[in-house]
Here is the input.
Amino acid sequence: MWLDHYSSACRECPDLVAVYEASDGRLALLLRQTLVPLPEESPAFRRATRSAARIIVDKLRAAGFRRGFIVLQWHPLGPGADIMRTWPCRYEADPARRAQLTAVAERYAADECFLASRVQLERGAKPKAATAPPPFALSGELHELQSWYDAMAPSWLSVEPLLRRALVLRAHRWTAEHILIAAAEGRAPTLERGDGLAGLESALMGLAPPDDETFWRPWIRLVVNDLERALRRPIGDWNQAWARWLLLIPYSVPMPRERLAPAWPLVPHLAVGDRALRRAPHG
Here is the structure.
């Protein structure tokens, strides 16, 4: 049970953004630091979060709290998003930062769920096709494409850093929804940047933290340009190899070589939000 003097202890912890309580009494601590540090930030991120968590735990222990703790910055994003969505918030120090971090967790979790549930290219009820479906959409080919995508899951999930993984998965989801499913149903995808592809570019840019937009913009534009070129192929060439190529485009585009600025500062009072979608990622 949350007690008033626990809130008093929390107010002495500047790195604490919010506290959530489980039904069994455990507490989940949401710190001010980012949820998705880049690889080069990991050592400093671990030091900063360990130090902050130790101070908070010590304060709450001194106030009499005896149950367990979860630090959301160390927790998988999917379960972490579920905690922030379903556990009661017992203490909130910074509503704006809490909203930013919650949005980040939910956006990344949504992309992970997309991969976990596989690409659902074939729907139960299809509208009447305006044109003949491309070669990849034939029943046997479509099943083989789905099996290939599932078999590639370890590769998708091993992409580093986490932000790049989120960008790849978001590009996959957009490709499945706006190109592969549309083509399989006989609907021609929109090729113009003013519509579909602009939406993809905007969605991918939304995943990048504000301080890293300049760093990631060339990567995003390369992905969008390659997809645009692929869509210019005659529909008769849209076979399974073409569909696999479409999904491999974001996976194969390398990261930019140089970063212009850190994604987040270590000094708590200078912390910059991970765009509250953010935006969005991909992390």
Remarks:
- Residues 162-184 form the longest helix (23 residues).
